[in-house]
Write a structure and sequence with these properties.
This protein has 4 domains: 68 residues, MutS, DNA mismatch repair protein, domain I; 84 residues, Alpha-Beta Plaits; 58 residues, 5' to 3' exonuclease, C-terminal subdomain (DNA polymerase, domain 1, Orthogonal Bundle), CATH 1.10.150.20; 106 residues, Dna Ligase, domain 1, CATH 3.30.1490.100. The strands form 3 sheets. A 5-stranded mixed β-sheet has the order 5-6-1-7-8. The longest helix is centred in the C-terminal third of the chain and has 21 residues. It starts with 13 loop residues before the first strand and ends in a 7-residue tail after the last helix. It is globular, with a radius of gyration of 22 Å. It is α+β, with helices and mostly antiparallel strands and 372 residues long. Bound molecules: magnesium ion. Magnesium ion binds next to strand 1.
Amino acid sequence: MLIFPLHVDNSRKIIHIDMDAFFASIEQRDNPELRGKPVIIAQDPRLSGGRGVVSTCSYEARVFGVHSAMSAIEALELCPQGIFVSGHYDKYVAVSQQVREIFGRYSELVQAASIDEAYLDVTENKIGAKSAMRVAKLIQHDIWTELHLTCSAGVSYNKFLAKIASDWEKPHGLTLIAPDAAKDFLAKLPVEKFHGVGKATVPKLHELGIFTGGDLQEANPLDLAERFGVYGWELYLKANGIHESRVISSRERKSVGKERTYSQFLHGEAAAKRELERLSERVAKSLQSHRLKGNIVVVKLRYEDFTTLTKRKSLSVKFDDAKALTEAASEIFDSIEPSEKGIRLLGVTVSGFEPTQASLEEASQEPLSNVE
Ligand SMILES: [Mg+2]
């Protein structure tokens, strides 16, 4: 239900690249015996006392229902013939760097979303190509011929649509969502497929009779905002093909942070510190994949009554490891006045970056005119 005109800026050309089964594909590339086999990147649960979580697996393993974030035990049950490889993270970061170098040949605006995903704004690109699809094809070609890996690409006019497009056809997919087709495309899309709609939100939307993008387009945005806050309003805009988040290149990145909201409020120091550790691990992973090190840590805490406080700490050295970050975040937490109130949100952020050697090398390869 359109109660006011919406302006859709479809002037940008955005590509989202997602490497196909990244870690598993690298293992299969480098070890011919693993090719065509169900490879599962996780500790072998038979050797690790049942511990371990699948970080990714090959397409051969996916046909058995194995997927990332699943426990290794469950993966073994589903795919007893699966080959467990505990992973070579340093190698994955190095290959991710090689992929980024290929991106850098085509655009100044490259934003890494994770170790194997990135957004590129190719509206003004380095090869003067008019077609974003052509740039996407060239990138896929370079990644295949130089690294013998495949990726899926999505092309559209904003990051949200480009991400949905790259998810649409995998592996080795290339999907375009053109500006004039976007609204219809979104109308048919189940809300589960909306990037950013989490498992907890889906049933809440269904309760409101919202099952597809079309239902969101028809919904009253004021009701969505009342029910889900700013998130509800953004969801309405996304369903109408509006997502104004720019592609920010890694060099522009000022901070890396993760937040989590708890429907079950956290009570007590132990629970809070466990969560701070989990958030710190995720932030550290993101720092490493962006090749960033920082020394300013901020902890954000929102209580059940919505009072919010943030506290920061500067450390003498720049770092990117989870252990140091967890320690710093815990020390900050200890310095906060204890409270009986439940915690509804926790966040950990690192800033004060100094690019690592690799990104300095990357920046130094840029002809002077392109360095911002
Ligand atoms: Mg991927």
